[in-house]
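Name: 1-alkyl-2-acetylglycerophosphocholine esterase
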Amino acid sequence: MPKKNKLSKLRDYTLKTNDRHHVPLPTGRFQRIGCHDIMVGLSRKSGILTRLYYPAKTTNDQYEMNPLLWPNWLPHEFYTQGYADVANIRSKFMFSMANKIRKKNVFIPAIPNARLNPLPIGQKYPIIIFSHGLGSCRTTYSAICCELASQGFIVAEHRDNSACLTFYPKRPTYSFKNSNPDFFNQTGDQVDADDEVDFGDEIDDPNYVPPKALSALTHIPHLEMAWIRFRYVSVFRADNDVLAFRKKQINQRVRECTRALDLMEALNAGYEIDNLLNPGFNYREFENTLDLERISLMGHSFGGATVLMAGAAELRFKTIISLDPWMFPIKDEALDLIPQPVMMIFSENLSKMPNTKSIEEWIHHDNEQNNDDRNAIIINGSNHLQQSDIPYVFSAFNRIFNTFSWRNRINPIVVHDLTTNLSIQFIGKHLDIPIDDQINQYVNEQRKHLRPLIKMMNKKKTKK
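Structure predicted for 1-alkyl-2-acetylglycerophosphocholine esterase:
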């Protein structure tokens, strides 16, 4: 009997196809991925902007590898400035230097507006709502989202005011009276979002200098669009004012997760959805295709904390996957109020932070009650950014991390594959979803890179 090759050796690590740089290619059985950008509602605080990833229809069961159709990782050129705002880069010189470390024109292996792959009668796609990290946006985790879609999930990533950059429809140039206004609580033909109360983007800081406004969006002729720039507040500040500010942000994020799920339910019910970014969007294509009994919530960093809060607030989510959660914004919250099964996947450098203490106590208490629905795993040698697309787009970050004590000792693609495969294993176990045997095989092959959080911290106590 021939010996099986290790799955890691079959992985394409080049990240280049037909002279196009891209994030890791998906490995699941649905090799052709589609994506839709959907914006619903004329409101900055209650509207929806999400990117939807899903298995796309193929022609004659053949995978059509056409990189010329793939979208750019940066949704708009201004997002470069958005990431500079996150890094608090103000000078033109530093901005130009930071821009040079970015690979130009990295692409996402998905087809915009592709048709949904039809399933046999009686089968439906389970759903994952993804919450991005602080200063990220709807494309920052495209590798994870594409991989999950290739494994048979519909994945939706929400937006909020803590993104590196986002935008909203300030006012329309035509009436929306006949486009299902009641579903999203629209109150008229025209809403001026400048009059709305902002959520979580104000803080009492006498040294704060507002960023200059970016020029208006012009590529959507039927709408007047406005940009929302990132509001920089250092993540190292931990005073009460900042904590109150972060709590406002995370409450807004929880609402965004819930509204993204509302949108999934509306699509499944066949409600008329007026996609402001694509008036030709075929909302009926998703009717009766989504499994509303198998809904998971997943997020990274600030998004990792968001999904824990959202799990306690919204019981429609059935499982929670929290990647490297930044616990400061929810340090006063009771984690035992979360009823769903929860998995946490930590990078090695963040697992050493004080923010894991409350998690250790929570999981330890559940283990004493013989509850195995809580799990926390560390990926050895990994760093915080490796669970995002940043290492593939800003390649110099890998060299920077190698310079410091939290240097990564593991390939970011291995971190990506372990993160997605562990997540799918967990979701499949708790939602009774069949998973590919190769997922279990890969995790077993890479077991040397994994260790439990609790065991590590208990050893530290024993040494003391």
